[in-house]
Amino acid sequence: MLLRLSQLKDAGQLMDLDALIWDVHTAPAPVIWRTKELFLRSSPPGSQIVAVDEDERLCGYLGFRHPMGAESNRHVWEIAVAVHPSYQRQGIGHALMNSIKGVAREKGIRKLRLRVLSSNTAAISFYKRCGFVEEGRLVGEFYLEEQYVDDVLMAVHIR
Question: Which parts of the sequence belong to the N-acetyltransferase domain (predicted)?
């Protein structure tokens, strides 16, 4: 497995993985990109670390971006991580997390943050194992599958 920054050639596979991974169990709404152009506007090449196998098949990614344009917030990246179901529980998520922490240090980023549904207990457990702590919670933020679900805000500080 190789970790590298995303390239234009990865767009189709990244779009497919988003459609596969992001559903009511992992996100407030499914993520379906209508066009490649819309995807690339939101996730340009170089804005993800991708994990690919020897045949350049996408195994997972970790997207990162500044959460807002304010200069006072430039030390923070918001991240999203997705691993293809066929490659889960093989250490790819941890490798992506370790990689982004190294890149963040190099770029002077001091905090990584993310949002996760309170119903996604496996993801919360994973993030905690990666050093993330809960910083806040938007109670009953989403109504999914006939129940109210909290939006959990988590972060890790980079040293």
Answer: 1-159
